[in-house]
Structure formats: C-alpha cells, structure tokens
Amino acid sequence: MDLSQPRFLTAAELEPADVLFCAFSEKGLVHRIISHGSSGDYVHVAIYTGAGKVTEAVQQGVVEETLENFVTRYPYIAVCRCPGTKINGVPDLSNKVIGFCKQHAEIMTPYSTWGAFKAPLLELRELRNPRYWTKPPSSIPVKKRAGRTFFCSEFVIEAFIYGGYIDQGHMNSSRYSPSALAEECVFNLVGYLGSSDLATHIFTHDYYLTGGISRE
C-alpha cells in the first residue's frame, strides 16, 4: 500500500484521460441504490479530458461538465491514471480517449438506464458461473448493439477500448459497475479530489487503500 495516500490533488495535477471514481453519498437515493446493488462505494465514474472539463454518461446522455461543478456532487473522488498513457505506453492513447469523449458528448449519445440497472446482476452472474473462471478473458463474448448507448462505467471502458489499451473482447463493458471497474485494477490510483477533512474516512474505507476491507 502507498503510505503517502490519501494524497489530495489540485486540478492542475490532473492529466487528460484520468479516470474519476466518485464516492457514494447517502444524500442521494440513486447513489444508495447503485452502492447497494454493486456492493461497492463508487457510484459513478467519468473521464477528465483536460482544460477543466469532464466527460460522463448520465441520464441526459453523454455530456461535458466542468470539473469545478463535477467535484461538488460527491464527498470525494479517487483519481486514477491508465498505465498506457505513459511515454512508453500505448501510442496516442490519451488523444484517442479524449477524441472518443468529445465525439459522444457532441452528439449526446443516449444513456443506458437498463444497462446501468443490469450491470450489478451481470457481475453476480459472472461470479456464480464457473465458466468465467476457467476460460481466458478473451473468450468472453461481447455483444454488439445497433443503437449505441452507455451507462457511466460502460462509457469509460469503451473509451479505453477505442484508445487501444483494453483489447476488444477482453472486457464486456456492459458487465461492470463503477466499483467493479475499480476492482479490475485497470487504472492506478494517483490521489483524491475533495476535502482533506475526509482523509481519515478515505484511509479507513476507500477501496484503493483498503482492498475493499474496511479498517474499522
């Protein structure tokens, strides 16, 4: 474990294509439903696209939001970075991910309400189905949909498939809630956005610092 964490970041320390995992807030009914259904504390995930902007899949569709407004909606946010964005990583990954975000935000690609509802159920089915433990990930079928829609974590996964970091067919994007995506360790923790008053809570409870087992 990185003993320097929780480290609180400024907006200037974020990099384009950073992934933002948003913590559960008891104030919101939808947050409580997502947290309970996925057995995790992350209820939303989005992509930082630079210049103080975030792209996310929400009820209105894929939209661009200011980072300033975005962070006010959650108690804290875990900021993660894809290893493939490093200099010796996947060529042009960040630009491809950002291009994907801009493209879908421009046309406001519709939100997948049904997909968001099903994701925790599909996670549970995979855990209970032994065939997913005995076959390599590349064998998991990925169904294509004619009319493209996204829920939040599905959008993030598809952005990094488009960028070339996640192999097509390696992850079925429709099967991951925000918490399940965090548990895949596709992205590495950089630090947190939020009030430093929450440092003890984050150290005690946050998945990236506890592995999902609270210190209490």
Distinctive features:
9 helices; 216 residues; endopeptidase fold (from Nostoc punctiforme); Papain-like_cys_pep_sf; globular
Helix and strand topology:
Layout (H helix, E strand, L loop, with lengths): L18 E5 L5 H10 L3 E9 L2 E6 L2 E6 H5 L4 E6 L11 H15 L5 H16 L2 H4 L17 H11 L15 H6 L4 E7 L4 H7 L1 H4 L6
Antiparallel strand pairs: 1-2, 1-5, 2-3, 3-4, 5-6
| Portion in beta strands | 15-25%
Number of helices: 9
Oligomer: single chain
Helix and strand string, N-terminal first? Answer: EHEEEHEHHHHHEHH
* Helix/strand structural class: alpha+beta
The mean pLDDT is 84
Q: What's the architecture, going by CATH?
A: Alpha-Beta Complex
Q: Give helix % range.
A: 25-40%
InterPro entries: Papain-like_cys_pep_sf
What does this structure look like?
InterPro entries: Papain-like_cys_pep_sf. The structure is a single chain. This protein has 216 residues and is α+β, with helices and mostly antiparallel strands. The protein has a single domain, classed as endopeptidase domain like (from Nostoc punctiforme) (endopeptidase fold (from Nostoc punctiforme)), CATH 3.90.1720.10. The protein is 36% helix and 18% strand. It has helices spanning 29-38, 67-71, 93-107, 113-128, 131-134, 152-162, 178-183, 199-205, 207-210, and strands at residues 19-23, 42-50, 53-58, 61-66, 76-81, 188-194. It has a 6-stranded antiparallel sheet with strand order 4-3-2-1-5-6. The radius of gyration is 16 Å and the shape is globular. The chain starts with 18 loop residues before the first strand and ends in a 6-residue tail after the last helix. Residues 28-38 and 130-146 have low confidence and may be disordered.
